[in-house]
Structure formats: C-alpha cells, structure tokens
DNA sequence: TCTTTACTTGCGATTTATTCGCATTTGCAT
DNA sequence: ATGCAAATGCGAATAAATCGCAAGTAAAGA
C-alpha cells in the first residue's frame, strides 16, 4: 500500500495512477516512460504510452515525482520524490545509475559572474565507470 | 580567424564547418542546433539542419564542442569546449544561462553507496531565477 | 444507491528534435 | 589537374513527447 494519497493531492485515484505509483515505488533507480509502461504491462495492466506521460506530467507538477534527463541521454527519466537531497553517478559504459552519499553543495555558496542569481535548486551528476566496467576497460 | 585547425583534427576544412565554428566562437552561452542554423543563415550561408547536426556530432566527437541538455529541456545545446572547468546557472523563467564562478567539486571526493565507482567527470547545474525575473515574481 | 459531471483514459494523429540514405559536390593528397 | 574519400544537399524516417476528441470512470451530492 502506497503512502501517497492521490485524492489528498487533488487528483483522482485511478487504477492507472495507482499502478504507475506502484512501479515507481518498486524501482530502485530513475526509469524512463517506456520502462514504466513495460513494468505496468508486466503487472497485467494495459495502458497507452500517452497516458503514462500524462500521469508522469501531473505527478511531476504535484511534486510526487522528479523528472530528469541525464547527460548524453535523449529521453527523460522519472523517480519518486523522496524529499531528500540525492545525486547520482552514472556509468558511461553500462548506464547503471548509482546514488551518491554526500552532497558537496551543502557547504558551498556559488556565485554567478557579474549577476545576482537566486538559486532554488541544483543538479549534480557524476559520471565515470562502475567497478565492473572499469575492470573491462583495463 | 579561428584558433581551431580542422585539418589538424583529421577532418576536412569546409565552408560549412568554418561557419558553424565561427558562430560557436561568437556565442556567449550554449545554444541549440536551430539557433546555430539561424545565426549561420544571418551570415548569408545556406545550410540544412541535418548538416548542422552532422557537424555538431563530429565536433563533439573531436572534443571541439560540448553537448548538453539542461534540466527540464527537450533539446540539446552546444558550446565550444574551452577546456576549462565551467558550470552554469539557468534561469527557470527566462531561460538565460549564466556562468558560475567556482566549482564546489574541487575540494570534494564523493563516494557512491556500497559500490566502487571511478569518476571521470561531473556536471553541475544551478537553477533558480535571475535578478530581473526574481523581481517580477515578487 | 443512483445521477451527474468533471476529470481521465483510450486511441491515434501530430509535433518536434534528431538521424539516416543516397546522389551530388568538394576538399585535398598525389 | 585528377581521383577518391569525405562532406553536404535534400528529404524521408525515427523516436520521444504532446495533443485532440470521444468514451469511460471516480467521487460528490441527491
């Protein structure tokens, strides 16, 4: 049972939305829309990709999910908003996505050249190679 | 006159490539393919968008340009690789892109949860509102 | 429980960024 | 100058994401 109450968010609690939510709760890294569709199908629920996109859009608006496009990728990924500050490292070889322990921004106040800028958030991605792929590279 | 010698990079020195290079040299922030086409056209050079993409692809391969997709955007931007460590701040309202003075990563060694990970690079984006847009928001 | 209605989804067409295919053209080494 | 591999012109093809509309459904009220 999900901790997120959709009706409380002012949106209807449909079978499709519950299913997408379930998939996102079970995912252990950000996934794209097509992957969500696959996992939804595996649960025996039939849905159209446009519905998936519409659900993801409204979830993003409501702050339930976080949408992101990784460096060098063409499609967006989605993950549940855990309301905790998280960054990822992505393997350039196998594309695996790993969570980073610490955030360097906590003790850092950046300045923008010659301009005032009001920072509301930031995105940090590390890239490189995971242990396995690094060994293969030699 | 450009400092970059295309023949030295093993690729032919065509009118089109020189023109794209010129546009990138004159740009003061990352721009997308269509914007490059516009600026090329303004210089009186006719080119197809597919040619722009092909040139950008080979420039990226050669390390002459850096391709990036900003948070929440659908299209990629391109900028000349200045071979210096740069990060940007992007205004969520007017989409202006500003350069950040410092890099917090310099004094930071991140660790990846339960895994070894060999970091070769990173990407950091700040987002928020520039002075002008912030005033409009009130 | 039954209606009503506004919100959602099914379904497919459309848009937009980007890539591909192929004939023609053009750098550039000889 | 000549020849050939590489690059471009041109347009068709892909793929991610969005849109439009009719039909279906959640949920608030009678």
Write up this protein.
The structure is a homodimer of 138-residue chains. Chain A has 138 residues and is an alpha+beta fold. Chain A has two domains: 1-83, Winged helix-like DNA-binding domain superfamily/Winged helix DNA-binding domain (Arc Repressor Mutant, subunit A, Orthogonal Bundle), CATH 1.10.10; 84-138, Ferric-uptake regulator, C-terminal dimerisarion domain (Dna Ligase, domain 1). In chain A, 30% of the residues lie in helices and 24% in strands. The first copy, chain A, contains four helices and six strands. Chain A has a three-stranded antiparallel β-sheet with strand order 1-3-2. In chain A, strand 4 and strand 5 form a beta hairpin. The longest helix of chain A has 13 residues, at 49-61. The radius of gyration of chain A is 18 Å and the shape is globular. In chain A, 25% of the residues are buried. The mean pLDDT of chain A is 81. Strand 6 (117-130) of chain A pairs antiparallel with strand 6 of chain B, so a sheet runs across the interface. The structure holds a DNA duplex (30 and 30 nucleotides).
Overview in brief:
2 copies of one chain form a homodimer. Chain A is 30% helix and 24% strand. Chain A is α+β, with helices and mostly antiparallel strands and 138 residues long.
